[in-house]
Amino acid sequence: MEFVIVTGMSGAGKSAALKFLEDMGFFCVDNLPPLLIEKFAEACFNSGSEIEKIALGIDIRGGKLFDDFFVGLDKLDVDYGYKILFLDASDNVLLKRYKESRRSHPLAKNDRIGIGIKRERNLLERVKKRADYIIDTSYMLTRELKEKISDIFIDKQDFNSLVITILSFGFKYGIPEDADLVFDVRFIANPFYVPELKCKTGKDKEVRDYVLSYDTSEKFLEKLTDMIDFLIPNYILEGKNQLLIGIGCTGGKHRSVTLAEELYKILKQRQESVNIKHRDIDNDARRL
Q1: SS3 of 275, please?
Q2: Do 71 and 182 lie in a common domain?
Q3: Which of the listed residues 126, 153, 180 is the one where a domain comes to its end?
Q4: Where is pLDDT greater, at 59 or 115?
Q5: What is the 3-state secondary structure (H, E, C) of the chain?
Q6: Residue 184 resides in a domain
Q7: Can you say whether residue 275 is alpha, beta or left, with left for phi > 0 and alpha for psi between -120 and 50 degrees?
Q8: How confident is the model at residue 107 (pLDDT cuts 50, 70, 90)?
Q9: Can you tell me the mean pLDDT for 89-111?
Q10: pLDDT attached to residue 80
Q11: Which member of 90, 100, 201, 221 has the greatest number of CB atoms within 10 A?
Q12: Range of the domain at 85
């Protein structure tokens, strides 16, 4: 029998993960009190039922009962095999999701949402360390999360928890606070000052050809790729599960977009979990 415990940060996608597992044939139970984990597992494993795959959702909604989570896990270790799937996201992303949904955080009480997120992260630190799979959903689309879960539990692919996001941005709008690596490409000639390219973006062929026509662009990509190839396996060994690479130019519309797209193409050939975002690509368009 396959037994999966789904847990993680509130707002990181646990409910969606359980829904996907249910669609994949798992018998799913959400928010079971941790003290009942052993009894539930015993009933499932010893009932002689035809249930072969079980997913159990455990989260902070259990309140103080969550303190009993490790007691339940320790008892499971003795008699039953299980895997822990931990859903995570950056604090900034979680805060944004809560504001958009207008929901209150279960640990915020009368405090700010950010305080509730920090409390929960501290509480879940031990659980995360014991997790078999950690998925950072900060920059994942819903379909990408579904594909990742399918890769793990259906296709049984080797799990790589590191998700790489390449983010283009404009320095005039600020450096991304959650970026792990930031690269300034303002040393490349700016298509903004070419009249026929001014209103286009780095996703247009004319701008791309212009930016890549400079040897410095090609050399930058070559050296950047070499460095990232060196860093990725070391980040994975260190247990990092989210790498955000920021590439910035003045307005985040031409040079940074072009080079972010090129880096994405290169890394996508070597790494499955690569995403690309263009934070400021439309900002200047509204000002022209």
Answers
A1: strand
A2: no
A3: 153
A4: 115
A5: CEEEEEEECCCCCHHHHHHHHHHCCCEEEECCCHHHHHHHHHHHHHCCCCCCEEEEECCHHHHHHHHHHHHHHHHHHHHCCCEEEEEECCHHHHHHHHHHHCCCCCCCCCCCHHHHHHHHHHHHHHHHHHCCEEEECCCCCHHHHHHHHHHHHCCCCCCCCCEEEEEEEEHHHCCCCCCCEEEECCCCCCHHHCCCCCCCCCCCHHHHHHHHCCHHHHHHHHHHHHHHHHHHHHHHHHCCCEEEEEEEECCCCCHHHHHHHHHHHHHHCCCCCEEEEECCCCCHHHCC
A6: yes
A7: beta
A8: confident
A9: 86
A10: 72
A11: 201
A12: 2-153
Q: Tell me the average pLDDT across 18-41.
A: 87
- 158 domain residue, yes or no: no
Coil, strand or helix at 164: strand
pTM of the prediction? Answer: 0.69
